Amino acid sequence: MRREGLMGEMRRKIDKELMDWKNRAHKPLMVFGARQTGKTTSLLEFGRAHYDQVVHVDFYKQAFAKSAFQFDLTPGAAVESLEALLDVEIVPGKTLLFLDEIQACDEALTALKFFCTDAPEYDIVAAGSLLGVHVARQGSYPVGYVDMLSMGPMDFEEFCWAMGKERAFGLVRKSFERFTPCAVHDQMMELYRSYLLVGGMPEVVAKYSEGARLDEVREKQDELSVAYVADMAKYATSADTVKIVACWESLPEQLAKESGSTKFVWRYVASGAKAERYQTAVDWLAAAGLVNRCTQVSEGVAPLRSFESASSFKLYALDTGLLSSWYRAEPGDFDDGGRRSARFRGGVAENYVMQQLAAARAAAYYWGAQSTYEVEFVVRIGDDIVPVEVKSGERVRSTSAKRFAEKYRCPYIVHVTAKNFGATDAVKSVPLYAAVLLGEQCQKRPLLAG
């Protein structure tokens, strides 16, 4: 956890996507994502930088604003009511109207359709912590009438920016393009191990970048974990809450099983637990953005989605730092060797890679056969189906990946490990810190897929 040099800035990749949205013909924008991933901050900073003013309506803190959409959903009437309620002027092209926690106002969600069709001159963004859960439950989503973006924790590159290492990661990008060894490999591996403990939740990263100790970082992570469980109790029935919490709290054990497989197994949730009773709990966690779900494919053939088995899946925590905090992991626990648990290190590394793939919105699956073979991730890069093997250290046994590559005639295997960049005809080696760059090359997943 050693830190040196000056700190960087809390920049997010969504900033560019927001500018791209502004500069093209666009619909109202909805931003999905879990609580505390930086949605409100990014949207407010974007608005302040690129508009004359931002009108920020938080339907939790300003419940009275719901009345603007209560009687008349036509854009003119809604804008006029908001202007009167908030004592502001909303000017097309100059004002960004930000409808925050929009899941608390169904009428405002519905009104987005009419802004799209009847008043496209208004720039409107909407966000909500449990927007995915609300849409899945209420079915009130204005399909076809909004643009969409998802936002999760900071990926490893964004973490490097915050730590003042933008130039170093720029060198990583060049090495990734050429698959030649990277001169800053040791420095990046040290930052990677810090990221495993800190994670990418913006408030936690900000605290760490300012010099906070691990115990101070962990205090903030614990607050977030408590807040997530509180949301489960607040937005689900009491019976469903018990199941949701049980699935959520099983993740550390699921990812460090003695079998070595990280496949989600119901008996680790509760005694006698079965999919029939608990599947909706997993769906809730996925809709809330609290987990990344990776489903099994039966064949390594394009399109992969046509071969996915929804009943067999892995679940990963949205943030690897939170996962490490549940384990109460210390910096030395990620050293390769000694008396530390290899299963723990492997599970955390796998969770990290999935987090980076999800940040890049990559469509990732896994493959298994007869309980003998398991490939951590299967992705599509261009026209190629590629097996991705993940290891926390440098040693790699590619039995499963080789079997998959032979069976489906894959052009190469990707090893994501602690080794530096390198390539042969059959294998491409990607260091763990560059996993997000691998994700950028992959076919993208649908935004609302679990």
UniProtKB/TrEMBL annotation:
What organism is listed for this UniProt entry?
Adlercreutzia mucosicola
Quote the InterPro entries the UniProt record gives: AAA_14 (IPR041682), DUF4143 (IPR025420), P-loop_NTPase (IPR027417)
Q: Which residues form a coiled coil?
A: none
Q: Where is the DUF4143 domain?
A: 231-393
Q: Where is the AAA domain?
A: 26-160
What SUPFAM superfamilies does UniProt report for this protein, alphabetically? P-loop containing nucleoside triphosphate hydrolases
Pfam families, A to Z? AAA_14, DUF4143
Lineage of origin: Bacteria, Bacillati, Actinomycetota, Coriobacteriia, Eggerthellales
Please identify the protein, giving its name as recorded. AAA family ATPase
- Superkingdom is Bacteria
